[in-house]
Amino acid sequence: MQPSREKGAISMFRRIVVATDGSEGARKAVRYVAEKLGEGDVRVALVRVTSPLPRYIFTEFMVPDLDPQGVVEKRTRDEVEEDATPLRVRGIPYEVYVEVGDPASEVVRRARELGADLIVVGRRGLNPLQEIFLGSVSQRILHLSEIPVLVIH
Q1: In 3-state terms, what secondary structure has residue 26?
Q2: Which residues lie below 8 Å from residue 123, measured CB to CB, with a gap of 6+?
Q3: Please, are residues 14 and 111 in contact by the beta-carbon 8 Å criterion?
Q4: Whose CB among 3, 26, 92, 103 lies 3.0–4.6 Å from 87's, allowing a Cys bridge?
């Protein structure tokens, strides 16, 4: 069965989590959600996962009243707000979550906590060799998730 390409095609879902990482694939995923959502009571959450800062950052470069992880999270939140432009332009309400840890695990955990019924992710376009050795976040989310996952190419 081919997915519907009409507006509202994903509106059967009430709570959608979109994984973002600043890549073009993630921006495509946000645009897809913004374009395909119809009218209705749909909640969108944009989730970006960062890596924890190495411990030495906190000790060797101590600056009074500076929280290095907080600085990273603020910058990351600003980047996600930029990625959210298609949602904002269409007046679609969204929330931003910045997590720290393993991207696939954190996206699935946040989706579970929010009671999401769909996760949308973009593909970075790894070549077959990179996928064999590195895997991809979208593949790991597909493996870990108990709810439907839509991968946007």
Answers
A1: helix
A2: 25, 136, 138, 151, 152, 153
A3: no
A4: 92
- Max alpha carbon distance in the chain (Å)? 59
CA distance 38 to 107: 24
pLDDT tens digits for the chain (153 residues)? 344 445 555 668 889 999 999 889 999 999 999 998 866 678 999 999 998 876 665 555 565 666 667 778 889 999 999 999 999 999 999 999 999 999 999 999 999 999 999 999 998 755 555 554 445 888 899 999 999 999 998
Find tokens 């009243």 and name the residue.
Answer: 65
Task: State the DSSP H helix or E strand holding residue 42, giving kind and residue range, or none if neither.
Answer: none
**Are 13 and 69 contacting, i.e. CB atoms less than 8 angstroms apart?**
no
CA dist 108 → 17, 19, 125 (Å): 9, 9, 21
DSSP code of 15?
Answer: E
Q: Is the pTM of this model over 0.85?
A: no
DSSP state of 97: E
Q: Which of 75, 82, 9, 15 is nearest to 42 (CA)?
A: 15
